[in-house]
Design goal:
With about 725 residues, this protein is an alpha/beta fold. The protein is built from 25 helices and 28 strands. About 40% of the residues lie in helices and about 20% in strands.
Length: about 725
Amino acid sequence: MTLPRVLIVSNRLPVTVHRGAAGFEVHPSPGGLATGLRGPHDRGEGWWVGWPGLSDDLSEIEREELTRALGEARLAPVLLGAPEIERYYNGFSNGFIWPVFHYLTGQLPFRSDDWPVYRDVNERFANAVAAHYRDGDLIWVHDYQLMLVPELLRRRLPKARIGFFLHVPFPALDVYRTLPHREELLQGLLGADLVGFHTTSYLRHFGSALLGLLGLPVAADHVVCGERTIRLGVHPMGVDAAHLGALADTPAVRDEAAKVREGCEKVFVSIDRLDYTKGAVRRLLAYESLLRRHPELVEKLKFVSLSAPSREQVGAYQDFRREVDAHVGRINGAFATPSWVPIHHMFQALPEAGVAALYRAADVMLVTPIRDGMNLVAKEYVAARTDELGVLVLSEYAGAAAELVEAVNVNPYDVERMALSYYQALMMPPVEQRRRMRALRTRVTGHDVHRWVEGFLGSLADEAKHGPPPATRRSPVAALPEVLAAKKLLLVLDYDGTLVSLAASPELALPDEELLALLAKLVARRYTELHILSGRTLGFLDRWFGDLGAHLHAEHGAASRPPTRKEWRKRDIPPPAWQEAVRPILSDFVRRTPGAFVEVKEAGLAWHWRRADAEVGARQANELGLHLGQLLSNLPLELLWGDRVLEVRPHGVNKGIAVADLVARRGKGTALVAIGDDRTDEDLFAALPDDAVSIVVGERPSSARYRVANVDEVRAFLRALL
């Protein structure tokens, strides 16, 4: 695929900047993101926008010099001073968003005074992107430090294609609620066209937050906000597996790995940033438990722990480093002998070759975070083990655990069980190691960082190619000439909100004499086939339209009957036993929501809040939707959001399925007109061919080609067909 030019936006530029005797020196930085995005950055002549890493007070001349030096590599610096870094990065980003997204709400400060600076820095990033944007560019924004940027760019560049990828977990709703300015951050992400996550669970939590806090129901892969549709995707990030494998096979790396192994039989390795989310203390405690349980391992086992410095200006990280150092010292003091130290702890960053040597030396790789978005160390270890030996011990709270299922999975909160897993990994026979590692390598090499980049940008480019749905025209009168000139007319009509106005109760929304007369005339119109496709029950449609001569489709197409038959043809649906579990839940929410009620259908259940207070009803509906979404996740059922109604129905039974046969047998020269008013009718519109006349009633977002304001305008259009 030939991609458009890409503008990459991240907190840091992929370079390290130093002051040299001859001016600023710029060197590429290692890392998965820099490696993966280097290809589209170089290939497409795009720009990379980010902070260059310097927080010194630069003179105007120095700023111009640095901007010019970086510009030669198409790097656009957002120059931030030390106070801004302290409040935007250390303050709000890592003081609030980071701990909440990693479920560590106890780390939150008492005040969020740094929010204005976070917002202002996001504005500066958006301005820098807009300054380099050209029509047709793809914009890819990265991570939690820049969550407001998509919406800020949307205001500046309404037609731009914007993607956002979150590299950390997105927490469950009850945890996300603790975050100050939570709604503003969600609104910021909704400025994107595509929002990506590492795992399905993160996407699901994001959808719960949109529903619970903004009242936006989320489909499997998208959410509608205003007139825009935002796609949601799962794109697990990979590593540069081919490069790591080749590096690990070099003689220098092999020799260094042999030195690491000198003087011991088995080697444990852990490699992390020094961060309280990485589980370092619990990992050390499990190692201590292993030594107590198995004293025969003393002087035979080496544990190399590499901790790269991280956010050293943040108080919580300073405290955490002191805690880790204390545990290392205590364990070494308790178990060391004159010729052996149980833990070799290094607080530094090693060059790439040094890290690869540790991977090759490790009989057991310990990756045990208490929460991690993905954890690329686990994948790097697998990529480096071209010998297909070694065992990966992986926390089930790392995003990578969803993919690396052949690892020895552990619960980092259960220290004693984790110690047992350490021993299992140590004692694993080579045959079993190879079986597991071979499967892991197939997955890691097949889904590397380059495939991740291509997949995300390909999805974003595909959205750009097809573009948003055409703007809905106000009146369908423009379509009348082609409809009236057609040899035959297929007319598909919804009922509630389309032919009659919504009422407080379905029993009150009855067809009036004027409507019945109008429908009778349409049935009598030459070469016209009328279909009433409604969420109403079989009994209701039989009672009011059974003798009309129209084709009837009840409960969104769960049952249908032609005018020539009295029997209904019902679709294959799961037996209604599930209703026994769901109905009490709906009834409970009725008791908690004055004015709400349950409608029992043959194929489904509907919870209405038409008579309830609008604000209370919407809030209760959101809570009910979240509860049912979790309860029904493993059943062949789905939630259907209508106009002040939430329906539980069998999966796959919708108005699009019901109209499929009609579309398939449409003859040449036949006009197809469909009219509906709520979200249930979007399935109908989506199933129509491109030349169909689709009409939505009201002001809600829709993929329909035309729009009318109300039921009166629907009836006026139908009269015009006569």
